[in-house]
């Protein structure tokens, strides 16, 4: 019988996870920053757009020249130079003039609105009819309307999404400081576990945990390192655990659903040099035989062998823990966000255990 036994509540388990330090930050290119957590505020080096631009194809005009315009009594304006895409106009729009302008073109001096081409008619020669009145700044994206120089674009602790990458690219920012990804060793243990390509004999099961836990690790922004299945042999488990700790920041072991196998796992972990068993059991169901240990500031999380229990514990604790290590906030209590709902049937719970029941919200 193992000498370790420290059953904790779910909230106490989360507090134990807070003992582990977050990862240092690193500079990465924009392509590598998706879903990473920003480790520093990013401010805009310039206005975006740098000057007022048109949001439609049409004519840059002075709005007052269109006041009172209609289909029956259009405003007649003289067409001048055209605005070229990507170039700052070197001319001005004077009273009674209109300058052809594409979507995204910079407004020339003197113009304060853009009339859509649909509301104009060429009148022959160099004249154009405007059939709708405009207000000042109609169809115009103002200078710095998206971002002002010195304005915060991304705050520290913010998840970098596609839209943040887009605005950074538009500002010419090629690299961003983010927290380093967590490397997670995923190890399945048990004499009854076989590779998923195999045909299970009686009493054997395919290694679903390695794939579901690895997928959860990836979804949390971390990098899974999948190890080969380890049978219930102390020496092999010890060797694999040592190799996993050398390569990864966190080790996620699954298995040990029987009493003997569970004792084997905690004995091997507890015998590692400088290892400390922080929790040997969590007062929840399913997932009570969950193990948490620390070695040189690296976490060892022992998950139940049952696939549903293993994934539930990984969702409740491993996922938020990985986000915390990568710069996120570790909410008090497991699973973070909670909703109140009414159950359609009674559930008989076990005294002293917090039960996690799978439901479908309707």
Sum up the structure in keywords:
Molybdopterin biosynthesis moea protein, domain 2; 6 helices; single chain; Molybdopterin biosynthesis moeA protein, domain 3; 20% helix; 3 domains; 6-stranded mixed β-sheet; Molybdenum Cofactor Biosythetic Enzyme, Chain A; alpha/beta; 362 residues
Overview of this protein structure:
The structure is a single chain. The mean pLDDT is 90. The chain has a six-stranded mixed sheet with strand order 7-4-6-5-9-8, with no helix packed on it. Strands 16-13-17-21-20-18 form a six-stranded mixed sheet, with helices on both faces. It is elongated. With 362 residues, it is α/β, with parallel strands linked by helices. The chain has three domains: 189 residues, Molybdenum Cofactor Biosythetic Enzyme, Chain A, CATH 3.40.980; 57 residues, Molybdopterin biosynthesis moea protein, domain 2 (Alpha-Beta Complex), CATH 3.90.105; 89 residues, Molybdopterin biosynthesis moea protein, domain 3 (Molybdopterin biosynthesis moeA protein, domain 3, Beta Complex), CATH 2.170.190.11. Helix 3 runs parallel beside helix 6. Helix content is 20%, strand content 23%.
Summarize the structure.
The relative contact order is 0.17. The protein has helices spanning 10-17, 162-170, 208-219, 234-247, 259-270, 307-325, and strands spanning 25-29, 42-43, 53-54, 58-61, 75-79, 97-101, 113-116, 120-122, 127-130, 140-141, 152-154, 175-179, 183-188, 193-194, 205-206, 223-226, 250-254, 275-280, 284-285, 291-295, 298-303, 354-355.
């Amino acid at each position: 019988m193992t000498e370790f036994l420290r059953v904790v509540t779910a909230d106490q388990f989360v507090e134990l996870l807070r003992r582990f330090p977050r990862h240092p930050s690193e500079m990465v290119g924009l392509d590598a920053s998706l879903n990473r957590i920003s480790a520093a505020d990013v401010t805009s080096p310039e206005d975006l757009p740098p000057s007022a631009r048109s949001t439609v194809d049409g004519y840059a005009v002075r709005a007052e020249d269109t006041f009172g315009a209609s289909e029956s009594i259009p405003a007649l304006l003289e067409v001048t130079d055209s605005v070229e895409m990507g170039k700052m106009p070197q001319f001005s729009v004077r009273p009674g003039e209109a300058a052809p302008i594409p979507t995204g073109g910079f407004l020339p001096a003197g113009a304060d609105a853009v009339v859509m081409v649909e509301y104009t008619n060429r009148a022959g020669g160099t004249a154009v009819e405007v059939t709708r009145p405009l207000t000042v700044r109609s169809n115009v994206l103002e200078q710095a309307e998206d971002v002002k120089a010195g304005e915060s674009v991304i705050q520290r602790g913010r998840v970098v999404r596609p839209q943040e990458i887009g605005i950074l690219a538009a500002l010419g920012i090629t690299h961003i400081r983010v927290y380093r990804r967590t490397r997670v060793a995923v190890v399945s243990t048990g004499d009854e576990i076989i590779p998923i390509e195999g045909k299970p004999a009686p009493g054997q099961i395919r290694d679903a945990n390695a794939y579901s836990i690895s997928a959860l690790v990836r979804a949390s922004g971390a990098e899974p390192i999948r190890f080969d299945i380890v049978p219930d042999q102390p020496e092999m488990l010890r060797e694999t655990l040592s190799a996993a700790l050398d390569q990864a920041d966190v080790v996620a072991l699954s298995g040990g659903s029987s009493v003997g196998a569970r004792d084997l796992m905690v004995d091997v972990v507890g015998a590692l040099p400088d290892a400390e068993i922080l929790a040997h059991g969590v007062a929840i169901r399913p997932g009570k035989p969950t193990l948490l240990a620390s070695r040189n500031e690296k976490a060892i999380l022992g998950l139940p062998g049952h696939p549903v229990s293993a994934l539930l514990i990984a969702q409740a604790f491993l996922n938020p823990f990985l986000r915390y290590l990568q710069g996120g906030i570790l909410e008090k209590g497991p699973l973070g966000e909670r909703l109140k709902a009414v159950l359609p049937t009674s559930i008989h719970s076990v005294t002293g255990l917090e039960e996690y029941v799978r439901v479908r919200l309707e």
